From TrEMBL:
Domain Ketoreductase: 7-186
GO molecular function: oxidoreductase activity
Top-level division of the source organism's lineage: Bacteria
Pfam families, A to Z: adh_short_C2 (PF13561)
Name of the protein in question: Ketoreductase
Keyword Oxidoreductase: yes
InterPro entries tied to this protein: KR_dom (IPR057326), NAD(P)-bd_dom_sf (IPR036291), SDR_fam (IPR002347)
Swiss-Prot/TrEMBL keywords: Oxidoreductase
Signal sequence range: none
Keyword Oxidoreductase: yes
Length: 249
């Protein structure tokens, strides 16, 4: 593919799981990918064997992160076509044990960081008539006792997706979201759950997933990639569950 025709994609939280699979999916499709994350080593692993992927170690909650990410894409490739807001953190705990610091950290990463990054990327995405993809969660569409702050932040990102879709349509920017269900990622480890807790959670998830299996990161990456395809140019504002039927089951 001629370099001038390659799309340029930013994927946050690209060091593991859904972010890694998404970065590699776009790369396999011939796009330049800026793989963003807090830890350098996992990003290097994401890019290994994928020469179109460039790692960028940035904490998306940092004050200068949005400008740093957008500038890196423009400086390296001269354009930005797709922004995938995938970085996220999960926390658990009932209302009776509310941890304000944990709640603030979740909202900073899961809600405010995507808004700040989308704001910084508006000029570049207007020029390319690009796409914003927000990675939310199926639990934002149903009750999630014990993780209510996480679910609330992701539900708010669903709402932003719909509002931005209408607001940015005159600029030619599409805004979509995918809402993963139970996916085989390290989020339970990052959340600090013990092996026993992770096993119990997986058992519960399987019981509540009609298709009867845990999803793969590639299942979500496929949906993201397809929603960003030019052939999907009449789709905006959608929040697509990728959850094996969990929301409707």
């Amino acid at each position: 593919m001629n370099d001038a025709r390659r799309r340029v994609v930013v994927v946050t939280g690209a060091g593991t799981g859904i972010g890694r699979a998404t970065a590699r999916a776009f790369s396999a499709d011939g796009a330049y990918v800026l793989a963003v994350g807090r830890r350098g080593a996992p990003l290097i692993d994401t890019a290994a064997g994928h020469p179109l992927i460039t790692p960028l170690t940035v904490d998306v909650t940092a004050t200068d992160a949005p400008r740093q990410v957008v500038d890196a894409a423009l400086d390296r490739h001269g354009r930005l076509d797709v922004l995938v807001n995938n970085a996220g953190i999960a926390g658990a705990g009932p209302l009776a044990e509310l941890d304000e610091a944990q709640a603030h950290a979740q909202f900073a990463t899961n809600l405010l960081a995507p808004a700040r990054l989308a704001h910084a990327a508006l000029g570049a995405l207007t020029a390319s008539r690009g796409v914003i993809v927000n990675v939310t969660t199926a639990v934002g569409q149903r009750a999630w006792p014990g993780s209510s702050m996480y679910a609330a932040g992701k539900a708010a990102l669903d709402s932003l997706t719909r509002s931005w879709a209408v607001e940015l349509a005159p600029l030619g920017i599409r805004v979509v979201a995918v809402a993963p269900g139970a996916i085989d990622t390290p989020i339970g480890v990052h959340q600090g759950l013990s092996p026993e807790q992770r096993a119990a959670l997986r058992h519960w998830q399987l019981d509540h997933t009609p298709l009867g299996r845990i999803g793969d990161p590639e299942d979500v990456a496929w949906a993201i990639r397809r929603l960003c395809d030019p052939a999907a140019g009449f789709i905006t504002g959608v929040v697509l569950p990728v959850d094996g039927g969990a929301v409707i089951g």
